[in-house]
Amino acid sequence: MKRNIVITGGAGFIGSHVVRLFVNKYPDYKIINLDKLTYAGNLANLKDIEDKPNYKFVKMDICDFDAFYKLMQEEQIDGIIHLAAESHVDRSIKDPFTFARTNVMGTLSLLQAAKLYWESLPEKYEGKRFYHISTDEVYGALQMSNPEGIEPPFTTKASSGEHHLAYGKDFFYETTKYNPHSPYSASKASSDHFVRAFHDTYGMPTIVTNCSNNYGPYQFPEKLIPLFINNIRNRKPLPVYGKGENVRDWLYVVDHARAIDTIFHEGTIAETYNIGGFNEWKNIDIIKTVINTVDRLLGRPEGADLDLITYVTDRLGHDARYAIDSSKLQKELGWEPSLQFEEGIEKTVKWYLDNEEWLDNVTSGDYQSYYENMYKGR
Ligand code: NAD
Ligand code: DAU
Can you give the pTM of this predicted structure? Predict the structure, then answer.
């Protein structure tokens, strides 16, 4: 079946993996990557597929209602996978307005343009889909009921290793009440509400998914794992917030992209699905694993860079623990993570060390001027 799909934020970390998967897997689909190319957008993330005939890049701000409405009409868009967002919690603490603009108003603008276009068609919403990618942070923070960890009640491929303890008895379920704490998560929560409101009010065929922390290739090195890999290779201090005791639930980014593919095609309209791998880690344990992996791969003595760990002032409002229960997705749609965390971290560290040019371009800012010039004439 032929489809015309817009993927917003396709030049970012997760978006680039979703674009790659769809372009390679669905040659009959037209995949339009719509991205404003903020500091986090980098078309070098898609170099391997940029010349494929079913791929098109459009530089656009999701807040530009007129431009997006025109694109919907011209390209006869029947599916939207919406990832574009301001995504870094620390930036949201410094500049909440940008987060409200992009994450809330941008999402609303896409919804309204899609509504007007789809409602103008004879078949209206039939065969259409607005899929909104959200985060587990909207649920707030879970208690750490047992610092030593308890055995998880679930076993999946990604949770079968020795590290996979749960650090509390509660999990985020699809039914968990929203309780966002940071300006970032508040803006994402608001956008989720707008998406659901467009289903409930106008009957738009929407889906929302809430995923845990992603890691893997092409993540902007402001986020924990790539920032620390980059700093270790350059022997720079590793700023650990607070005591490093906060817990996050990590998923390899390609597994998130696979889940998005499954849910886009087989998910039930108006449903919410949590995505995660039952893979909780304390920050400090991840950091030590990353240090040991980088040192080993660079041929440095094991633990040589442990002294780079530098405890710094905690993030304001730092959420203690995130832990996703993804059993609904696993049971209803048969998705499960494909990688053990140890395997994923090894692949990830190796990727960054093998792609030093990408890291250097991103950290120096060179990637932006290069692609700015490349796309000027198009
Ligand atoms: P990212 O910051 O790496 O990429 C965001 C992309 O959106 C960039 O390419 C950027 O240029 C683009 N963008 C930003 N503002 C835009 C605008 N106004 N118009 C058009 N494009 C714009 O983000 P990511 O980590 O890949 O996250 C993608 C989505 O997944 C976000 O919605 C985020 O909330 C969600 N999410 C992320 C994680 C994670 O661990 N990274 C986990 C769960 C959910
Ligand atoms: O849970 C999903 C979310 O995961 C996504 O919605 C966000 O877009 C994504 O950025 C991520 O949010 P976090 O705040 O959890 O990710 P970050 O990589 O910024 O931080 C992970 C943990 O590491 C967190 O507890 C803060 C800590 N940290 C982070 C940085 C950047 C440090 O200790 N030092 C650091 O320098």
Answer: 0.96
